[in-house]
C-alpha cells in the first residue's frame, strides 16, 4: 500500500523502559543495576547486549564475545547521542512511531493471533513490542544520519585503493560463486470479468457499511493489506506522496467521512474513507482486495512472454530492447533488465538468489536464457525469464576483476577512520561510564578509561 518500503529486520530484544529522570540522575561510578553503560543520556542495558548477541547468532553472524559487542554498541550510542543534539538532523520521532505501528501490524498479519506473535518474538505485550520496534528504528535513523554527516565529502583516490589492496590483499574475503543476470518480468493481466468481480465485491462491502456496518470492522474482516487490516484499515498522518497516486487522488477528493467508489491501484482495488485532513496531512481508512491473477490469466502471460523470448532467441530483438519495451519491472527495465545486488554490483552471489531463480539457472551457461517461469509471491504473481550474462566462480578478491568492491572496502575503512577521529575529538565533552564488570575486557583506550571505579 505504501509506495516505498525498506527492508525491515526486527531485533528480538526486550527493552526495559527507563524514564528521563532516571537517565538524568545517573552519575559516573553509580550505575544502576542492569545497565552496562551510559553515553550522555543514552543507556545500554545488559539485556540489550545479551538479546542482540543472541539475535546475531540466529542470523548466522559470528559473534566472538560479549566485550566486542559492548564496544560496538558504545560506539553506536555515541553517534546516536550526538545526532540527537545536532540541530541539522531532522527530528523524525513522530514518523518513526507511526512506522513502528505499521510494522507491528504487518508482522501481526503473518500470525493467527497476537498472542502467538508475541510468543515467537519474545515479548510480553504488544505495547512492549511496539516500543522495541520504535527504539530500534530510532537508533538506526539517528546513527545513520550522524555517520553520513561526519563522513560527508570523504572520497578515495585510485592510488589509495591500490595501496589498500597491496596492504590487505591476503586478508580480503573470498567471493562465493556469482552470476550476472538480466530479467524480463510480466505482471499477468486480469480479465475484465475478473476485475468486475473484485469491484462488485467492494461495492457489496460499501453497501453493507451504508446499511450500518462500521468501516473499521469490515476492514478487519475483508481487507488484504497486512499493514492496516488489523487496525481497521487506518493510516494516520499521511503525507502527500506517501501513497500511490490513484489512492492519494481519490482520498483527497473525498469529504471527511465520505467513502469512495472502488479505486484501482497496482496493489488491487480499494474502498477509501477519508477520516480527516489537517494541513498537508490526512488520515484515511481503506479496504484492499488484492488483484491476484488466476491460472488462466497466468497462462496467458506465460504465452506472451514465451513469444518475447522467441523474438530474442531468433535474433529479431536484443534482450535489452525487449526488457525496455515489455518488462513491467520498473527497477530493471531501463537498465537492460540487469539485476543488481544490494551494494549496486551486477555480480550476485548464487546463495542470494531465490530458490526459484537458482533452480531455473542450474546447468545453464553464459548467454543462455531460461524458460518462462512463475515468480513473485502469493499477492503479486509474475512470469519471468532470466538471461545469464556471466558466471563467476568463487575466488579471492582481486583488484583486476573486483576493483569496485575493493574500492568500497577501502572507502569504508577511510570513513571509519574519519569517524574514529571525530569520536576522539568529542570525548572530552561527553559523559561516559561503563560498568566495572567489564574491567577485564579488551576495550579501546578511551572506553577503558570510562570503567566505573
TrEMBL record:
Pfam families: Rotamase. Gene3D superfamilies: 3.10.50.40, Porin chaperone SurA, peptide-binding domain. The keyword Cell cycle does not apply. Transmembrane segments: none annotated. SUPFAM superfamilies: FKBP-like (SSF54534), Triger factor/SurA peptide-binding domain-like (SSF109998). GO terms for molecular function: peptidyl-prolyl cis-trans isomerase activity. PROSITE patterns: PPIC_PPIASE_2. Keywords: Isomerase. Signal peptide: none annotated. Residues 176-276, 279-374 form the PpiC domain. This is Peptidylprolyl isomerase. It comes from Bergeyella cardium.
